[in-house]
Amino acid sequence: MDAVIEISGLTRDFGNLRAVDGLDLSIRAGEMFALVGPDGAGKTTIIRMLCGILKPTEGTARVLGRDLVRDLSSIKKDIGYLSQKFSLYGDLTVDENIDFFAAVHRVDSFKNRKDELLEFTRLTPFRKRPAERLSGGMKQKLALACTLIHAPKLLLLDEPTTGVDPVSRRDFWKILSNLLRRGITIFMSTPYLDEAERCSRVGLMNQGKLMAADTPQAVRRLMRGEVIEVVCADIRKAFEVLKRPPALGEVQAFGDRLNIVVGNAAADFPAIAARLREAGIVAIDRRVIPPSLENVFISVMKARETEVEHAPES
Predict the structure, then answer these.
(1) N or C: which end of the chain has fewer CB within 10 A?
(2) DSSP 251
(3) How far apart are CA 186 and CA 203, in angstroms?
(4) Buried (b) or exposed (e) across 198-215, using 16+ Cβ within 10 A?
(5) CATH 3.30.70 domain position(s) in the chain
(6) For the CA atoms of 236, 242, 245, 251, what is the dihedral angle to 10 degrees?
């Protein structure tokens, strides 16, 4: 099976609000696909439709070769869903939580599977500890173990590392990488663009629409303009100076340097340097750098907004 998820014209309305608007998307077996976008972009709604919590208003979807609406009960046996607020039972131990979800999924003779998952998530030393006494990162790993107890072929993860500390995020991603090597397909949403960089493909969502879907490298080529990295002595002052109107470009501060998005680096940098000099600031170094996914997202979003503004009225 080449396509694990096939979506055509998928739409979901909540009253007068269109949360997902005519989504077309195909996810291949064995890939990790990330939806990124701001709150309200439609990411969670898509995942909830794919796992059967919400019914589409329009459109169709096939999951693991089966119709999402007609064959939902059989699809659920082969998918694992990790929501933003996974419901662990705080008064149950790590072991007992996994036992409970095994019972929910009607999994028999799962002792070896549970031991493997505990080892896999590095939770074996904590198996007798109540879930309420685990750290945030450990709770997420336990939630993932519960999601995997019935050996799903497809994982649907809704912002699985939100609110987790950086070390636990890194551990969680190591686990996901190992799952990929085992042949599990992963479809996830994330607010972290650095996480999306690790995925096979990335989908950029805004206001219910999929603006682009491709490899991170290919998505970067959608960038309009260039990014100049500038190093100077007083970054805070330089940032304030360049943010004053008239705008010379989009400015972001990263540690001891500024990133400035301009149309053309060679043509636009002299005006930037002149404004800094007027404020008594010297640019120690500058270079053109590859755009981040955040740069690309903003660029694609603005391009879409411009297209809408100039579209002829029907």
Answers:
(1) C
(2) E
(3) 13
(4) ebbbbbbbbbbbbbebee
(5) 226-290
(6) -90
Half-sphere exposure of residue 208: CA atoms within 13 angstroms, side-chain side: 12
CA angle (143, 147, 150) in 5-degree steps:
145
* 279, two tokens: 């404020």
Three-state DSSP at 255 gives coil
Preceding omega of 246 cis (within 30 degrees of 0): yes
Is residue 41 within 8 A of residue 207, CB to CB? The reply is yes
Q: What are residue 218's DSSP bridge partners?
A: none
Question: What is the distance between the alpha carbons of residues 40 and 207, in angstroms, rounded to a whole number?
Answer: 7
What amino acid occupies position 309? E
The tens digit of pLDDT for each residue in 151-209 reads 999 999 999 988 888 888 888 899 999 999 999 999 999 988 888 989 999 999 999 99
**The two three-digit tokens of residue 278, written as one number:** 């007027």
Could you say which architecture CATH assigns to the domain 226-290? Answer: 2-Layer Sandwich (3.30)
Q: Do 156 and 51 touch, CB atoms closer than 8 A?
A: yes
Among 277, 44, 267, 302, CA closest to 162: 44
| Mean pLDDT along residues 274-280 | 94
User: pLDDT tens digit string along 104-133?
Assistant: 999 988 999 999 999 999 999 999 999 999
**Structure confidence at residue 162 (pLDDT):** 84
Fold of 3-220: Rossmann fold (3.40.50)
Q: What is the identity of the amino acid at 107? A: V
Q: Which residues of the chain are in CATH 3.40.50.300 domains?
A: 3-220
